[in-house]
Specification:
three-stranded mixed β-sheet; 5 helices; 52% helix; alpha+beta; 17% strand; elongated
Amino acid sequence: MRVTSRILGTTLALALLLAALLAVVEAGLALIGSPPWLVTWPSADDLARLTWTAPSFRLAMVAIGALGVVLLAWAWWPRPAVTLPTVGQAETPMRVRRTSVETTVAARVREQAFVTDAEVSARRGTVVVHAGTTRPTSPEERELVEHTVQRALVELGLDPASATIHLRQGTRRAA
């Protein structure tokens, strides 16, 4: 849904930008007395004469309203939570929400005295941790962060070998 929303939003933004540019060009041409470039003014005048009782106007408004209702229903439709399968000898298969994994692991990493910030991304089969430190990273600090991440993943029932850890000096990840 996130990708679809981004594509739809980008397409709508580009369409609005093109419509605005077209309106500016047409208004500029009208100001200098040139003939219209794309929009013929007689057809635009015909549209201005439409009233609320015109069947074509009512049909267009009903179609736009129906499209809006469909898009709202699609956006508000409940979707299953994105989860990761757990590992272990549990008799009942369990799953953990991805956001729970990300917030829990990030909070555990931030508990370290030398860590200034932590960003965690959990996907199927892998957990990536980006952590900023107050000083240049040493092997001991890296080992401590790795141990913290692995302990948090084991407590959540996830495979600790799936973690990838990136340490950097500073508070923000390089773009």
